[in-house]
Amino acid sequence: MALDKPYLDVPGTTIFDADQSRKGYWLNQFCMSLMKAENRARFLQDEDAYLAEWPMTDEQRAAVRARDLNWMMHTGGNIYFLSKLGATDGLSFQQMAGSMTGMTEQQYRDMMVSGGRSAEGNRIVGEDGNAQGPMARSAAWRAWEEAKAQESLAASVESAHSSVETKRPAGRARVTATVYSSHVPAIGAAIDLGKTAEPYWVPLFKGFEFSRQWEQENRPDVVFLVYNDHATSFDLGVIPTFAIGTAAEFQPADEGYGPRPVPKVLGHPELASHIAQSVIQQDFDLTLVNDLKVDHGLTVPLNLMFGTPAQWPCRVIPFHVNVVQYPVPSGQRCFALGQALRRAIESYDQPLKVQVWGTGGMSHQLQGPRAGLINAEWDNRFLDRLIAEPAALARLPHIDYVREAGSEGIELVMWLIARGAMADAAGGRAPKPVHRFYHVPASNTAVGHLILEESSG
User: Fold this and answer.
1) What is the rounded distance in angstroms from the CA atom of residue 373 to the CA atom of residue 25?
2) What is the pLDDT of residue 165?
């Protein structure tokens, strides 16, 4: 019986599922290789020779030579992997996204500044939205399709004819607050390149001024940071659904532009291992990772909450969730995982103050003719429900995220892990919202941010 794929009728959208992953394995592995500077240099010097080293199909190689992102996705490419090729060519993510829409670069930028592409008319094939037309195709792709059509006809005719234990202070760890934030890579670039005072970026960073002050006054010992790897440490050889970083330190990854100039992340191996054992015994399958490089999904939220210190002011446990290749975990599974996480933290026999951060989102689509989708109304309703009715919100099916918040909006299920880690999810007191912020756009993305404190008493 074939798997139900309700996302196939979402216009201008290619969901990267297991079939796409299998089809595009070597194309995406080739793109991953471009994370190394020496490989980028060899590719740019002689593309054909470098491509010959990878067992891709002839069509995939042709799509790469044409730099046709829609064509590459048609043959199994994933936008996060393909972005390494774009980075090698010196393109920003916004330029890459714009190239798939049939718009000029300026038209795409203007659309994003004006609030992004609307979800109206762009939810189901056959509506009248502005992503419903034919996808942008290079001349090379059109020529390939015409040639293949002739080959298919000839084949049909032919077929018709031929048929260690240490002493610890007394007390238990506890969750003190949860933090929710988008992790847009362009925010990191603005910080790294000194652009935070530019008019485009000022409103966004202003929205986190309170948060940085709040963190100074409510400094945790450990941040359990839920994020997704963006085709950086996990390639298509292994994609864990849930993976916890148990190492002592984690270096910033090279995502194609060189590693970000941020401090290395210091982990908490003891608490991480305790959480892993506890959560796995609560019937959640985690992958334990002792060698992990962390990308913008983890470092950008640290910047937003802590600024740009010489070293991060607390220990960080990276927790990766697969939201790149379908199937991805359900909202309910993530919410229940957060509940299991709280039980794990509270059983740790050291008086640590722990914050749980959920990152990613909000509405955004980085790929296909629907790239640039923003749904501010849906985003803000999500924030309302995250505060007031998280258990009901957790029952939202994946397809609602895809239709309403874009193909990459599915990252928001990670916020439900953090929300499930609060006391009220286990029958306790409701949390105290201390800060809420929403802004459009940051490059291709709507930015959401929320801080919830545990209620006292």
Assistant:
1) 27
2) 47
Number of domains in the chain: 1
CB 229 within 8 A of CB 30: no
Give the integer Cα–Cα distance in Å for 5 and 348: 41
Contact 231, 84 (CB under 8 A): yes
DSSP letter assigned to residue 435: E
In a domain, 59, yes or no: no
**Rounded to whole angstroms, how far apart are CA atoms 68 and 53?**
20
Name the one residue in this structure whose structure tokens are 């916004």: 94
Domain that holds residue 231: 174-453
pLDDT of residue 134: 80
For residue range 201-212, what is the model confidence (pLDDT) as tens digits?
A: 999 999 999 999
pLDDT in tens, 173-225: 999 999 999 999 999 999 999 999 999 999 999 999 999 999 999 999 999 99
Residue 247 in domain: yes
Pairing state between β 222-227 and 315-321: parallel
Phi, psi (rounded to 5 degrees) for 319 = -130, 110
417 within a domain of the structure (yes/no): yes
> Counting runs of H as helices and runs of E as strands, what totals does the chain give?
20, 10
Q: Count Cβ neighbours within 10 Å for each residue of 282-306 and write b for 16 or more, e otherwise.
A: eebebeebeebbbbbbbbbbbbbbb
**Catalytic residue set:** 296, 364
Cβ count near 181 (within 10 Å): 28
Q: How are strands ordered across the β-sheet holding 315-321?
A: 287-289, 242-245, 315-321, 222-227, 353-359, 174-181, 445-453, 432-442
Q: Give me the sign of the Cα torsion angle 119, 120, 122, 123.
A: positive
Q: Are 437 and 448 in contact (CB under 8 A)?
A: yes
Q: Specify the amino acid at residue 362.
A: M
Task: Identify the CATH number of the domain in which residue 335 sits.
Answer: 3.40.830.10
CA dihedral 438, 446, 120, 407 (to 10 degrees): -140
C-beta of residue 359 within 8 angstroms of C-beta of residue 225: yes
- Check pLDDT > 90 for residue 317: yes
Rg of the Cα atoms in the chain: 23
Domain membership of residue 357 (yes or no) is: yes
**Separation of alpha carbons 405 and 357, rounded Å:** 20
How far is it, in rounded angstroms, from Cα 48 to Cα 193? 34
